[in-house]
Amino acid sequence: MNYNNKFELPGSYKKWTWGLIVAGLLAVLYGFIVFHPFAHPVHAEGGSHGNVNGTRFWAVLLQNSVYWLLTANAAMFFICITTLAMGGWQVAMRRVPEAISSVVPVLGLITFIILLAIVLGGRTDIYHWLDPNLYVKGTGTFDKILNGKHGFLNPTFFLVWSAVSIILWILLGRKMRSLSLKSDETGPMDHAEAKRWIDVNFTYASYFIVFFGLSVASTVPWLWLMSIDPHWYSTMYSWYTFASTFVSGLSLIAIFVIFLKNRGQLEYVTEEHLHDIGKFMFAFSVFWAYLWFDQYMLIWYSNQPEETRYFIDRIGTATKTGPYYGIFFFNLVVNFMAPLLILMRKSSKRNWTIVTFVAVLIIFGHWIDFFQMIMPGTVGPNFELMPFEFGIACLFIGVIMWGVGGYLTKHSLVAKNHPFLKESMIHHT
Amino acid sequence: MSGIKKFVVGSFDDEVVLFPAVKNVRKAGYKIHDVYTPFPVHGLDHAMGLRETSIHTAGFIYAVMGTTTALTFISWVFTKDWPLNIGGKPHFALPAWIPITFELTVLFSAVGMVLTFCYLCQLSPFVKKHHFSARSTDDHFVMVIECTEKTNDSEVQSFLQSVGAKDINIQVAESGWWLGRYDKEQKLYREELGY
Q: Best label site of A27, A120, A413, B131, fewest CB within 10 Å?
């Protein structure tokens, strides 16, 4: 019952962290040497690629950096929505999403470097709209549609807005975390102080949510992911990306909460809290499936050639099966059917083993989801799911474990002076 | 309809008193017939040792029935009974059916669960049950203890008094439900005033 005892990471955790990071760095090194990522890209949309492996290198880096960055950032989104909703139940485990969101600066920097390399390196095989010939009127390469989108899809706006987004996530996230950490030192609050403290939290959480809506729930997925298929657009896309990363973020929170509980920490977190995390995972898996289906059904129903193109690249047509057919429907089974059926019962949401299993499944499933969002427009049918792809994922998992482990050992695991802590301790669903 | 039985009825005016009282009454080995409260009391079912409801299992079964009904009926209509060419789509147009399938799943599950709930609670028009205390709909938490031949009424009464009941009496009442009207209930039981 001692709030202040610092958590010591077990040796196996450190071993896994560094093992994953080293494995990931080896994969990057392998890619650098074997895939010639800086060779000039030969591009033609849907046509032949000169250097598929070079494209593959950048596409895999883009997939992993964006996926893990948005997943880690979803932890801060979780803190902010529960703050705005005046939620009390999550306070006992609040330091876990804080720890996960503390990785955002590192992942944001990595992501920005990768985006910078892709855009400044003129990787037209990743972002077709980078090709300057598309905007020269009167030539054979002039593209009327992309010329119309040029005000939005251009390197300057892309990089400036990406930088602004990442920096604001970092700054607002840091403010939320520092408010929480500062309450550890200032001691118990009386009613007026607590009210003021909650108000400040409330204000910064609202800033974060508003900016989150302007970035993750709209512009950032358009720029980073949807512009891979620049002629195609879907109004569902950003919500889809948000749902995907939010449910993986919740799963990541669940995994770390269960890990700490297994190490005998977080004494106030009980099955009741696990039950609520399980409900969130269940609900947002269904929400993701709802958006998946909306996007698919509307495009299937209206049958406009410029829209169906997206699905033809993935699952093919009635007569010819596309290269991503298996992955596309596997995605639906893992991310919708499995959480729906496994987490439906109350007893399974309160079972630490089952929630861990489903959380790992969801994180893997949405990684595959991002894979099928990015690969068809870049490497096309020549995609591979080889040790290189998993190696890069290991690098990012290792970085997250490193950052989260660091935060958890540096700070108290219980926000002991949070005014809602008691509400969380006696929480009963 | 399970017949006329004898009950000791204790009314509490505070749920804080009610919880330990329920625990003590159960510990003393008395059989709690039911506890009637003006509003749902969180955790009371747990304190009374009632088992988890299985209404969600019923809901799942109704939902699966709804899904099956929707898919079999729509697919039969559009592929066998009355195939129509709608925008050149295949006759077996699964994505277009999903919204209706979803709606029917929800409808079956919701309506089925409401009816099951009414059945389990014996709620229906014309079904009447004995009211142990009218104040259980207002401000009293009413605990009803069922007596057997071996139960010593006065012992139960003094026990209820010791755990904090404000108003205690003995009622001989119909324990189940009956069809009809409340003015007939006078013939079904006689009321004995308590201490």
A: A120
* pLDDT tens digits, B51-96: 888 899 999 999 999 999 999 999 999 999 999 998 888 899 999 9
The torsion defined by the Cα of A38, A42, A43 and A48, in degrees rounded to 10, comes to -130
How confident is the model over B29-51, as pLDDT tens digits?
888 999 999 999 988 988 999 98
Single out the residue in B120, B136, B155 at which a domain terminates: B120
To the nearest whole angstrom, how far is the Cα of B45 from the nearest Cα of chain A?
13
Quote ipTM for the complex. 0.81
d(CA A400, CA A247): 17
Residues B116 and B130 in one domain: no
Provide the chain B residues 123-162 that lie in CB contact (below 8 A) with chain A: none
Q: How far is it, in rounded angstroms, from Cα A162 to Cα A170?
A: 12
- Give residue B74's domain range: 55-120
Full DSSP string of A235-282: TTHHHHHHHHHHHHHHHHHHHHHHHHHHTT--TT--HHHHHHHHHHHH
Q: Considering only CA atoms, which of A47, A195, A188 is closest in space to residue A124? A: A47
Q: What type of residue sits at position A369?
A: D
* Domain-wise residue ranges, chain A: 12-419
Paired with A321 in beta bridges are A316
**Is residue A210 within 8 Å of A129, Cβ to Cβ?**
no
- Nearest CB among A293, A318, A428 relative to B42 is that of A428
B43 interaction partners in chain A (CB closer than 8 Å): 428
* One domain, residues B34 and B69: no
Confidence band of A47 (pLDDT split at 50, 70, 90): very low
The number of distinct structural domains making up chain B is 2
